[in-house]
Every structure is written in structure tokens, then in C-alpha cells.
Amino acid sequence: xxxxxxxxxxxxxxxxxxxxxxxxxxxxxxxxxxxxxxxxxxxxxxxxxxxxxxxxxxxxxxxxxxxxxxxxxxxxxxxxxxxxxxxxxxxxxxxxxxxxxxxxxxxxxxxxxxxxxxxxxxxxxxxxxxxxxxxxxxxxxxxxxxxxxxxxxxxxxxxxxxxxxxxxxxxxxxxxxxxxxxxxxxxxxxxxxxxxxxxxxxxxxxxxxxxxxxxxxxxxxxxxxxxxxxxxxxxxxxxxxxxxxxxxxxxxxxxxxxxxxxxxxxxxxxxxxxxxxxxxxxxxxxxxxxxxxxxxxxxxxxxxxxxxxxx
Amino acid sequence: xxxxxxxxxxxxxxxxxxxxxxxxxxxxxxxxxxxxxxxxxxxxxxxxxxxxxxxxxxxxxxxxxxxxxxxxxxxxxxxxxxxxxxxxxxxxxxxxxxxxxxxxxxxxxxxxxxxxxxxxxxxxxxxxxxxxxxxxxxxxxxxxxxxxxxxxxxxxxxxxxxxxxxxxxxxxxxxxxxxxxxxxxxxxxxxxxxxxxxxxxxxxxxxxxxxxxxxxxxxxxxxxxxxxxxxxxxxxxxxxxxxxxxxxxxxxxxxxxxxxxxxxxxxxxxxxxxxxxxxxxxxxxxxxxxxxxxxxxxxxxxxxxxxxxxxxxxxxxxxxxxxxxxxxxxxxxxxxxxxxxxxxxxxxxxxxxxxxxxxxxxxxxxxxxxxxxxxxxxxxxxxxxxxxxxxxxxxxxxxxxxxxxxxxxxxxxxxxxxxxxxxxxxxxxxxxxxxxxxxxxxxxxx
Lengths: 311, 446
Ligand SMILES: [Zn+2]
Ligand SMILES: [Zn+2]
Description:
A: alpha/beta, Rossmann fold
């Protein structure tokens, strides 16, 4: 079975069956990570471009590893080397890569909707690796995978997402993904970081983290961008941290098996204290590990069904 | 030359006419309007099953000349206007350089008269360089021929500057056309702030960014006694504020665009940059109250905010795309299809908002068909169906989200400034007589 779509642009496009298929496939790929030679020939002969116009270490290298483990050819293009930075339009970029007969392009871009624009002009698969403040669908998928692995289920869980919801593409994708999988989502942030009408996505909005963390199975923290203070979205990092940061004091009353997650990179001492980040139920490294299997699954499900592929 | 327009349904709201009548045009002027006019030696235009109206007036048009002639010129914009049924248009002042001195006004009027199609009424800048700091030389601009003042997209943020502009403009009895947007509240905004901006991760332009400025300017207009016209009203709150101000006797009028009456922010789901406009597409609730405002008279006029943009300004990431869509060639059929046909407003009401009222607000001729006046007249087939094809536009720019829409209501013939400019859906490039001899004899008896 493969995904019957050319692109992965948003979580909103995926139905529950597709999400389940991705997670199951990721499970079967996970074993490869434990082998001494971490490589299968599944996507031999396929060419994948990693097109990252915003700095990113973990997502870029995660896609790179996933592609290489599947034996695909991988080209890395970053903001510094890209012609887009020199004024080439995304439309021209699409046409250029089309001429090079690539099979897929993984895009990270600072503009919401940029992957849609590229996909409109491209015949190859486009995978959104984070666009502006819109979505980061593979992050949501790897988070689902991690939670399933750790807690054995997803449906029926209660998850709090804490932090800068307004500017977070991770929050958008995760809200949508959690919702689809039957999770009850609570958002916790100062009102200045809660986007308008988000309640229409069937989430609860609360301001008191101390109360919420006692009730949930997962506390999902978002990275707080330090420049938001300058936009008057909160008065100081100090005050933000005192209200919404996770420290040992604050988590004393949480249920013992509550998971603490973060898409990384973390600001130690701001949204999470160093001590909390090192607790066994802080599973930030597991998330990174899941990322590789989930991205392998996705590349396979999007490209493996097409003729010309290896394996 | 004489023309006799036979058996059309004449819709002339300014003269309270809505009935089947004949119209005799002689030497570019209306000679008679009556039942069953019989006359020898006139060109007869059969208007049965058609609607005959005063030439339409679009009071919010960006012609891009001078500065961006690649996007639109006075000539291409005039042609687009005529094809869309508009015999008069304004030209908004945010050109490069902006219309803040007499010489540019003269240039625009000069070119428009050389083109000789639609009447072009220049709008002058409220402030020098559209910077919102010092008021422009309004007397000079008036002398040169502007009919109103506006800084359009560059809202005048400084309330004191706006107060002075309102006071000063009272000398000329022309309206200030105000694009209402608090630039701090809307900063970096891309789309209406609400569920869809949230879902799509686009920075929001909240309804209050418009409403606080509407409220401020209504208060200032009340205080100064100035005449103001609120451009492209887009929110329920603005409609309510304007209705209240009108009740209190504030000299305020306002307009709405066809797209704000028809589209909503959920249309943005595919990041179509042709839908990126300012003010942004709002919610269904806003659309409903705009329609109510149109019906109850709170909203006086419909204007397109025709904003041509080159392809490279639109085929880019959403947050980098320019704001605006073209409208001259789609306004009328959109309004007929979506509002008149669906029973939201009547034909006379539509024509009033597109002719009589804009003429009144701007204090310009036209907007009605009266004997003796130079004829600006449009004959519309309200039933003819067609598909919008941007590549067929007269406008140099194709940034319309309505490409591919199937609409009803087509402009067939247009008299502009006393001359037959458009006949059987085509421009009269040749001398009138020639055209009749060559092609159209079936339809016209000499
Ligand atoms: Zn405007
Ligand atoms: Zn405008």
C-alpha cells in the first residue's frame, strides 16, 4: 500500500487511515535503525532534494538520513547556496528541478504556503518540512509515533501544548494530528500567543499551567522565540518562564508517567529547565529517533509506489 | 448622427425610471426618451430583452500610470472600463510619482482624453508623497481637475494631519476618500484575522484595524464638518459605525467592492495570491452585513478597487505577494450573477450603486440619462452567459480570482462621452459608419 497523493503539504489533508498507514510503516522501518548496516535498497534510483531555505539541523539531517537509509540519491540545498536567495522564484525553482527529473523535494521555507506554491508548479512530490507559521506535518507524525510507542495508544489521551501557539507551525500540525487521532488537546499560553478563533479547532484554551499539567498525559512544550518579547507579546522572558516554563517545582504534582515533549531545539532555562529536560519522562531524544523512521516511511509511501524505483 | 435605441428596459434610478422605453440620441446628446419613438434615418439598436442604463462609474480604480505601465496604462484601463460597462472611472493617486501635484493630474487628463474612451477623474493625494505628514497643495490639484482626495492604502495614521486635511478640504466641497486601516494593528498582516488566518499560519489583519480608523474618521468628520467617503468597507462593525454616523448627520458616504460582497476568507485555503487583497476577505457574517448595508442604503456605492499587478508580483509566496485584484471587467457580471440573480438586490438598486450614487458623491456629470446631456450609456444583456477568461482581458494584468467562473450578464453596447465606443461586444476602432457597413448590418438598420 502506498499513499495516493503526490505531496505531503499539511496534516489537514491527511485522513486517519493515511496517518495510521504512515505510523505502521514507520514501525516496520524502525528495525533498520538497529542493524549494523543501516541501509535497504527500497528507493534506489530515486533522487530527493533537501531544499532548506531556513536554518535547520535536525529536520534536514533527519530527512537526509532517512533518504540515505533507503538508498535514494540526496542533494542538499541550503539558503546560502540556493538561487532563491538570489531572487529566483519558487516557480522557476520548480521548473529547474523538474528538468533535472528529481522524484521528491523536501522544503523548509519561511513563508506559509510556500510548499503549496512549489507543488502547484512541480510534477515531483513536495514534502513540507515546515513552512512559516503554517504547518510542520512530519513533526506531528513523528510525535504521534513517539507517543504511541511510549504509551501504547493515542486515542483518548489528554495533551497540553504549551507556549507560542501563535507563531508555531508545530502547534498547528500537532493540534490537527492529535485531533484526528482522538486526543483531547488543551493549549496553554498567554492570550497574546493564542491565535484568534483557534477554539474552532476543537481545543480548549487555558492560562494556568499548574492546573493543566496535573490533568494531562503529555506536556508538549514549544520553543519560545526570544524576539517575541520585542513585539510586546509578553513583558519579559523572566515572566514568561515563571508562568509557562517547566521546572522541577512545577512538575512535582504531575502524574508519574506524564511525558514531556519538545520539538527542539530547546531553550534550557526558559520553556524547560535543564533538570526537567534530563528526566526519564522527557523524551526529546526519542522524538528525534522517531523522526528518521517516520520520514523513511513517508518517503517510501510517496515514492515507492511509482515505477522506476528500486526494491 | 442619430441613434435610436429601441425597446430596452431603461433602468435609470436617478430619474426613477424602470420601464421599456426608446431613446433617441442625436449629435452625442440625448434627444428624447419616450415610448415608441419613430424616426427616419437613425441607426437603430435593438435593445429588446436588454437593459439600458446610464454609463456606469467605478469610483475606485488604480490605473498604474505613471510608474507601472507594465501593469496597466490609462489606455488599457480605459478599454477594460468600457468593456466592463464603465464610462467613467477615477484614477487613484498611488502612482509613481504619486498624484500630489498639478502636472501629473494634467498628464492623466491629457492621456485620457487622447484615448477618448472612458472619462477619467483623477483623485489627488491627501498628503505630499502619500506620506501622511503634510497636506498636499489641494487648491492646485483641484484647479488641475481632481475630484477627490485620498491616500488610499497609505492610511493617514496621524489624527492631527487627518483633522487638518478634513478642515482644509472643506473649501473645495470634495470628499476625502479614506482607506481605513490602523497600520499598527495590521502590521505584516496577510489575511483577515480569524479562523482561517490561524489555520493557514498567515499574519492577521483584524477587523478592528479597519473599525478603529472608521470610528476615528467619523468622529473627526463630525467634528470638522468635512465630507468623507469610506473606501472598500469590509466589516460588519464598519457598516454599523457608518449607519450610526449617517443617523447623526455626519457627511459620510461609503463603497464596497464586488469581491467583499461575494467571497469570504475560507476561499484562501489554497493560498491563491489573487485573493490577497487589502482590506482582506472577511467572514460570512461580514459579507451578510455588507449586503444588508447595501440594501438599507448605508452603503452608497459599489467600486472595484481595480488593482492590476504583474504576474511576478502574484506568482510568489503569499506573504511576498502584492495586495489587490483587477475588477473592471468582472464587476458587473459578478454582481448580476451573485446579487441580482440571487435576489439580494434589484437591478435598479445595483445601477444606483454603480452610477447615480458615485456621480453624486464625486460631484461629476453622468449617472443618469436626461435629455440634453452628453450620452454615457450602456446596454447590457442580463441573460447572456460566459466564462471569465483572464487572457481575454483588456486590462494588462490578469490577477483575478474569478478566472474560469461562469457568469451571466454581458455588456453589449456602450456610448461614452457622446460616442458609440463599444458595439456588439467589440470596440469601435474604426469609424462608426464603416463598422456598420462591414459587419453589423443584420443587427442594425440604416
Ligand atoms: Zn485601499
Ligand atoms: Zn485602492
